[in-house]
Amino acid sequence: MKQKLYLICGLGILFSSCTVIRQGEVGVKRRLGKIDPEYVEQGPKGYNIFTTAILKVPTRIMNIEVKPDLPSKEGLTIRSEISILYRIKPEAAPKIVQNIGLNYESEVILPVFRSASADITSKFLAKDMHSGERAQIENAIRKQMTDILEPRGFVIDNVLMKSIRLPEGLARTIEEKLQAEQDAQRMEFIKEREKRDAERRIIEAEGKKEIARIQAEGEKNAAIIQAEARKRIFEIEAEGKANAVTIEAMATRKANDTINKTLTPAILKLRQIEAFRSLSNSNNSKLVITDGKTPFLTLPDKF
Protein backbone atom coordinates (compact mmCIF):
# COMPACT_ATOMS: atom_id res chain seq x y z
CA MET A 1 0.00 0.00 0.00
CA LYS A 2 2.81 2.37 0.86
CA GLN A 3 4.61 1.46 -2.36
CA LYS A 4 1.56 2.42 -4.40
CA LEU A 5 1.31 5.68 -2.52
CA TYR A 6 4.98 6.43 -3.17
CA LEU A 7 4.48 5.56 -6.84
CA ILE A 8 1.52 7.91 -7.18
CA CYS A 9 3.41 10.71 -5.44
CA GLY A 10 6.42 10.13 -7.65
CA LEU A 11 4.32 10.26 -10.82
CA GLY A 12 2.61 13.42 -9.59
CA ILE A 13 5.94 15.08 -8.95
CA LEU A 14 7.23 13.90 -12.35
CA PHE A 15 4.28 15.29 -14.31
CA SER A 16 4.13 18.51 -12.32
CA SER A 17 7.79 19.16 -13.17
CA CYS A 18 7.03 19.17 -16.94
CA THR A 19 5.49 21.93 -19.10
CA VAL A 20 4.86 22.49 -22.80
CA ILE A 21 5.82 25.71 -24.58
CA ARG A 22 3.33 26.13 -27.45
CA GLN A 23 3.49 28.00 -30.75
CA GLY A 24 3.40 31.76 -30.36
CA GLU A 25 5.06 31.85 -26.97
CA VAL A 26 8.42 31.36 -25.26
CA GLY A 27 9.36 30.32 -21.77
CA VAL A 28 11.35 32.32 -19.25
CA LYS A 29 13.06 30.19 -16.63
CA ARG A 30 13.31 31.52 -13.07
CA ARG A 31 15.62 29.55 -10.79
CA LEU A 32 15.75 30.47 -7.08
CA GLY A 33 14.37 33.93 -7.89
CA LYS A 34 16.84 34.66 -10.69
CA ILE A 35 15.84 35.02 -14.38
CA ASP A 36 17.76 32.95 -16.87
CA PRO A 37 18.88 35.32 -19.73
CA GLU A 38 18.18 32.59 -22.33
CA TYR A 39 14.56 32.02 -23.31
CA VAL A 40 13.04 28.54 -23.56
CA GLU A 41 11.92 27.52 -27.04
CA GLN A 42 8.77 25.63 -28.05
CA GLY A 43 8.21 22.03 -27.01
CA PRO A 44 7.98 19.96 -23.79
CA LYS A 45 10.37 21.08 -21.06
CA GLY A 46 11.21 19.51 -17.68
CA TYR A 47 12.35 21.38 -14.59
CA ASN A 48 12.74 21.06 -10.84
CA ILE A 49 9.56 22.30 -9.25
CA PHE A 50 11.30 22.96 -5.95
CA THR A 51 13.88 25.38 -7.34
CA THR A 52 12.69 26.41 -10.82
CA ALA A 53 9.62 27.87 -12.51
CA ILE A 54 9.02 28.45 -16.23
CA LEU A 55 6.98 31.55 -17.05
CA LYS A 56 5.19 31.62 -20.45
CA VAL A 57 5.41 34.86 -22.43
CA PRO A 58 3.35 35.23 -25.67
CA THR A 59 5.31 36.34 -28.75
CA ARG A 60 2.39 36.31 -31.20
CA ILE A 61 0.62 39.53 -32.20
CA MET A 62 -1.54 40.78 -29.34
CA ASN A 63 -4.43 43.24 -29.51
CA ILE A 64 -5.21 45.84 -26.86
CA GLU A 65 -8.47 47.74 -27.30
CA VAL A 66 -8.75 51.05 -25.49
CA LYS A 67 -11.31 53.88 -25.47
CA PRO A 68 -9.33 57.02 -24.68
CA ASP A 69 -10.54 60.63 -24.71
CA LEU A 70 -8.23 62.42 -27.13
CA PRO A 71 -7.54 66.18 -27.11
CA SER A 72 -7.76 68.16 -30.36
CA LYS A 73 -5.91 71.23 -31.51
CA GLU A 74 -8.86 73.51 -30.74
CA GLY A 75 -9.15 72.08 -27.22
CA LEU A 76 -12.05 69.68 -27.74
CA THR A 77 -12.23 66.21 -26.22
CA ILE A 78 -12.76 63.47 -28.77
CA ARG A 79 -13.99 60.06 -27.71
CA SER A 80 -12.40 57.22 -29.60
CA GLU A 81 -11.92 53.47 -29.82
CA ILE A 82 -8.41 52.36 -30.75
CA SER A 83 -6.70 48.98 -31.23
CA ILE A 84 -2.99 48.54 -30.48
CA LEU A 85 -1.37 45.59 -32.25
CA TYR A 86 1.95 44.64 -30.71
CA ARG A 87 4.26 41.64 -30.14
CA ILE A 88 7.32 40.78 -28.06
CA LYS A 89 10.70 39.83 -29.49
CA PRO A 90 11.50 36.28 -28.25
CA GLU A 91 15.06 37.18 -27.26
CA ALA A 92 13.78 40.15 -25.23
CA ALA A 93 11.29 38.10 -23.14
CA PRO A 94 13.74 37.37 -20.22
CA LYS A 95 14.72 41.04 -20.04
CA ILE A 96 11.07 42.17 -20.04
CA VAL A 97 10.17 39.76 -17.23
CA GLN A 98 13.28 40.82 -15.32
CA ASN A 99 12.73 44.59 -15.62
CA ILE A 100 8.95 44.96 -16.00
CA GLY A 101 7.25 41.70 -15.08
CA LEU A 102 4.29 40.01 -16.73
CA ASN A 103 2.01 43.05 -16.37
CA TYR A 104 3.88 44.90 -19.11
CA GLU A 105 0.65 45.98 -20.90
CA SER A 106 -0.60 48.09 -18.00
CA GLU A 107 2.90 49.00 -16.78
CA VAL A 108 4.47 50.15 -20.08
CA ILE A 109 2.46 49.81 -23.27
CA LEU A 110 -0.72 51.64 -22.24
CA PRO A 111 1.04 54.58 -20.54
CA VAL A 112 3.26 55.08 -23.59
CA PHE A 113 0.20 54.91 -25.84
CA ARG A 114 -1.75 57.48 -23.81
CA SER A 115 1.16 59.88 -23.86
CA ALA A 116 1.86 59.42 -27.60
CA SER A 117 -1.80 59.64 -28.67
CA ALA A 118 -2.44 62.79 -26.65
CA ASP A 119 0.74 64.38 -27.99
CA ILE A 120 -0.13 63.59 -31.61
CA THR A 121 -3.86 64.35 -31.67
CA SER A 122 -3.33 67.74 -29.97
CA LYS A 123 -1.62 68.82 -33.22
CA PHE A 124 -4.68 68.04 -35.38
CA LEU A 125 -8.10 69.61 -35.63
CA ALA A 126 -11.07 67.53 -34.55
CA LYS A 127 -12.40 67.34 -38.13
CA ASP A 128 -9.05 65.90 -39.28
CA MET A 129 -9.57 62.85 -37.05
CA HIS A 130 -12.81 62.22 -38.88
CA SER A 131 -11.35 62.62 -42.39
CA GLY A 132 -8.46 61.41 -44.52
CA GLU A 133 -5.94 62.60 -41.91
CA ARG A 134 -6.76 59.58 -39.73
CA ALA A 135 -4.09 57.39 -41.34
CA GLN A 136 -1.48 60.10 -40.74
CA ILE A 137 -2.48 60.28 -37.07
CA GLU A 138 -2.28 56.48 -36.70
CA ASN A 139 1.19 56.35 -38.26
CA ALA A 140 2.44 59.19 -36.09
CA ILE A 141 1.23 57.48 -32.88
CA ARG A 142 2.76 54.15 -33.93
CA LYS A 143 6.11 55.79 -34.75
CA GLN A 144 6.31 57.59 -31.41
CA MET A 145 5.44 54.40 -29.50
CA THR A 146 8.01 52.44 -31.53
CA ASP A 147 10.76 54.91 -30.70
CA ILE A 148 10.11 54.34 -26.98
CA LEU A 149 9.17 50.64 -26.80
CA GLU A 150 11.28 48.93 -29.46
CA PRO A 151 14.55 49.29 -27.48
CA ARG A 152 12.76 47.44 -24.63
CA GLY A 153 11.82 44.51 -26.86
CA PHE A 154 8.31 45.48 -27.99
CA VAL A 155 7.28 45.74 -31.65
CA ILE A 156 4.29 47.98 -32.41
CA ASP A 157 2.81 46.60 -35.62
CA ASN A 158 -0.08 49.02 -35.96
CA VAL A 159 -2.34 51.53 -34.23
CA LEU A 160 -5.89 51.52 -35.60
CA MET A 161 -8.44 54.23 -34.85
CA LYS A 162 -11.59 52.13 -35.09
CA SER A 163 -14.05 54.89 -34.29
CA ILE A 164 -14.08 58.60 -33.54
CA ARG A 165 -16.99 60.32 -31.80
CA LEU A 166 -16.98 64.08 -32.20
CA PRO A 167 -18.94 66.49 -29.96
CA GLU A 168 -22.56 66.66 -31.10
CA GLY A 169 -22.45 70.29 -32.23
CA LEU A 170 -19.18 69.83 -34.10
CA ALA A 171 -20.36 66.61 -35.71
CA ARG A 172 -23.51 68.36 -36.96
CA THR A 173 -21.45 71.25 -38.30
CA ILE A 174 -19.09 68.90 -40.08
CA GLU A 175 -21.99 66.94 -41.54
CA GLU A 176 -23.58 70.15 -42.81
CA LYS A 177 -20.28 71.24 -44.30
CA LEU A 178 -19.76 67.86 -45.93
CA GLN A 179 -23.31 67.99 -47.28
CA ALA A 180 -22.67 71.45 -48.69
CA GLU A 181 -19.41 70.25 -50.25
CA GLN A 182 -21.20 67.26 -51.74
CA ASP A 183 -23.91 69.54 -53.15
CA ALA A 184 -21.25 71.82 -54.60
CA GLN A 185 -19.44 68.83 -56.09
CA ARG A 186 -22.71 67.55 -57.53
CA MET A 187 -23.45 70.95 -59.09
CA GLU A 188 -19.91 71.10 -60.42
CA PHE A 189 -20.38 67.63 -61.89
CA ILE A 190 -23.66 68.70 -63.53
CA LYS A 191 -22.00 71.87 -64.83
CA GLU A 192 -19.08 69.87 -66.19
CA ARG A 193 -21.43 67.35 -67.77
CA GLU A 194 -23.45 70.10 -69.47
CA LYS A 195 -20.20 71.69 -70.63
CA ARG A 196 -19.08 68.37 -72.12
CA ASP A 197 -22.50 67.95 -73.77
CA ALA A 198 -22.24 71.44 -75.28
CA GLU A 199 -18.73 70.71 -76.50
CA ARG A 200 -19.95 67.43 -77.96
CA ARG A 201 -22.79 69.20 -79.80
CA ILE A 202 -20.35 71.79 -81.14
CA ILE A 203 -18.03 69.05 -82.33
CA GLU A 204 -20.93 67.22 -83.97
CA ALA A 205 -22.08 70.43 -85.71
CA GLU A 206 -18.54 71.14 -86.90
CA GLY A 207 -18.27 67.55 -88.06
CA LYS A 208 -21.50 67.79 -90.05
CA LYS A 209 -20.37 71.12 -91.51
CA GLU A 210 -17.04 69.60 -92.50
CA ILE A 211 -18.79 66.58 -94.01
CA ALA A 212 -21.08 68.87 -96.05
CA ARG A 213 -18.07 70.90 -97.20
CA ILE A 214 -16.21 67.76 -98.20
CA GLN A 215 -19.26 66.44 -100.03
CA ALA A 216 -19.75 69.75 -101.89
CA GLU A 217 -16.07 69.86 -102.75
CA GLY A 218 -16.26 66.26 -103.89
CA GLU A 219 -19.27 66.95 -106.10
CA LYS A 220 -17.50 69.99 -107.53
CA ASN A 221 -14.36 67.97 -108.22
CA ALA A 222 -16.48 65.21 -109.75
CA ALA A 223 -18.21 67.74 -112.06
CA ILE A 224 -14.83 69.18 -113.07
CA ILE A 225 -13.47 65.69 -113.71
CA GLN A 226 -16.55 64.76 -115.76
CA ALA A 227 -16.30 67.97 -117.81
CA GLU A 228 -12.60 67.36 -118.42
CA ALA A 229 -13.39 63.77 -119.37
CA ARG A 230 -16.08 64.85 -121.85
CA LYS A 231 -13.71 67.46 -123.26
CA ARG A 232 -11.00 64.86 -123.63
CA ILE A 233 -13.42 62.44 -125.27
CA PHE A 234 -14.52 65.17 -127.72
CA GLU A 235 -10.86 65.98 -128.46
CA ILE A 236 -10.08 62.31 -129.01
CA GLU A 237 -13.14 61.91 -131.30
CA ALA A 238 -12.25 65.06 -133.28
CA GLU A 239 -8.65 63.93 -133.50
CA GLY A 240 -9.84 60.52 -134.67
CA LYS A 241 -12.10 62.03 -137.34
CA ALA A 242 -9.31 64.30 -138.53
CA ASN A 243 -6.94 61.37 -138.66
CA ALA A 244 -9.57 59.35 -140.56
CA VAL A 245 -10.06 62.14 -143.16
CA THR A 246 -6.31 62.50 -143.47
CA ILE A 247 -5.87 58.76 -143.89
CA GLU A 248 -8.72 58.61 -146.44
CA ALA A 249 -7.27 61.53 -148.40
CA MET A 250 -3.86 59.93 -148.34
CA ALA A 251 -5.37 56.63 -149.49
CA THR A 252 -7.28 58.37 -152.33
CA ARG A 253 -4.19 60.24 -153.39
CA LYS A 254 -2.19 57.08 -153.26
CA ALA A 255 -4.88 55.24 -155.29
CA ASN A 256 -5.00 58.05 -157.88
CA ASP A 257 -1.22 58.05 -158.03
CA THR A 258 -1.31 54.31 -158.57
CA ILE A 259 -3.99 54.65 -161.27
CA ASN A 260 -2.17 57.48 -163.00
CA LYS A 261 1.00 55.43 -162.97
CA THR A 262 -0.81 52.44 -164.52
CA LEU A 263 -2.72 54.40 -167.26
CA THR A 264 -0.38 54.03 -170.18
CA PRO A 265 -1.30 55.42 -173.68
CA ALA A 266 -2.09 51.92 -174.85
CA ILE A 267 -4.52 51.30 -171.98
CA LEU A 268 -6.18 54.68 -172.55
CA LYS A 269 -6.57 53.89 -176.27
CA LEU A 270 -8.10 50.51 -175.38
CA ARG A 271 -10.56 52.11 -172.97
CA GLN A 272 -11.54 54.63 -175.70
CA ILE A 273 -12.26 51.86 -178.14
CA GLU A 274 -14.34 50.01 -175.59
CA ALA A 275 -16.32 53.18 -174.90
CA PHE A 276 -17.04 53.78 -178.57
CA ARG A 277 -18.07 50.15 -178.94
CA SER A 278 -20.44 50.42 -176.05
CA LEU A 279 -22.01 53.55 -177.55
CA SER A 280 -22.46 51.90 -180.90
CA ASN A 281 -24.40 49.07 -179.31
CA SER A 282 -26.78 51.47 -177.57
CA ASN A 283 -30.39 51.79 -178.86
CA ASN A 284 -30.30 55.52 -178.37
CA SER A 285 -28.97 57.70 -181.12
CA LYS A 286 -26.01 59.77 -179.97
CA LEU A 287 -23.64 62.27 -181.48
CA VAL A 288 -20.08 61.91 -180.39
CA ILE A 289 -17.57 64.60 -181.21
CA THR A 290 -13.89 63.96 -180.56
CA ASP A 291 -10.61 65.08 -181.96
CA GLY A 292 -9.45 61.50 -182.04
CA LYS A 293 -6.78 62.20 -179.43
CA THR A 294 -8.59 62.78 -176.15
CA PRO A 295 -9.67 59.60 -174.42
CA PHE A 296 -13.43 59.52 -174.01
CA LEU A 297 -14.68 57.00 -171.56
CA THR A 298 -18.29 57.83 -170.76
CA LEU A 299 -21.11 60.17 -171.78
CA PRO A 300 -24.12 61.19 -169.85
CA ASP A 301 -27.48 59.71 -170.85
CA LYS A 302 -28.75 63.08 -171.97
CA PHE A 303 -26.57 65.40 -173.92
Topology:
Layout: H1 2-16, E1 18-21, E2 25-31, E3 34-40, E4 43-46, E5 52-58, E6 62-66, E7 69-71, E8 77-88, H2 93-99, H3 104-121, H4 126-129, H5 134-149, E9 154-165, H6 168-262, H7 265-280
Helix pairs in contact: 3-5
What can you tell me about this protein's structure?
With 303 residues, the protein is α+β, with helices and mostly antiparallel strands. 56% of the residues lie in helices and 20% in strands. It has seven helices and nine strands. It has helices at residues 2-16, 93-99, 104-121, 126-129, 134-149, 168-262, 265-280, and strands at 18-21, 25-31, 34-40, 43-46, 52-58, 62-66, 69-71, 77-88, 154-165. Strands 6, 7, 8 and 9 form a four-stranded antiparallel sheet that branches. A three-stranded antiparallel sheet has the order 3-2-5, covered by helices on one side. Strand 7 (69-71) and strand 8 (77-88) form a beta hairpin. The longest helix is centred in the C-terminal third of the chain and has 95 residues, at 168-262. The protein is rod-shaped, with a radius of gyration of 63 Å. The chain starts with a helix and ends in a 23-residue tail after the last helix.
Key phrases:
303 residues; alpha+beta; four-stranded antiparallel β-sheet; three-stranded antiparallel β-sheet; 56% helix; rod-shaped
Stretches where pLDDT is under 50 for at least 5 consecutive residues are: 5-15, 296-303
What structural class do helix, strand and pairing data support? Answer: alpha+beta
Most strands sheet: 4 strands, antiparallel
**Got a strand count?**
9
Radius of gyration: 63 Å
Shape: rod-shaped
Residues in helix, %: 55-70%
Quaternary structure type: single chain
Measured by DSSP, the beta-strand proportion falls in: 15-25%
Order of helices and strands: HEEEEEEEEHHHHEHH
How many helical stretches? Answer: 7
What is the terminal-to-terminal distance?
A: 188 Å
Overall average residue pLDDT = 81
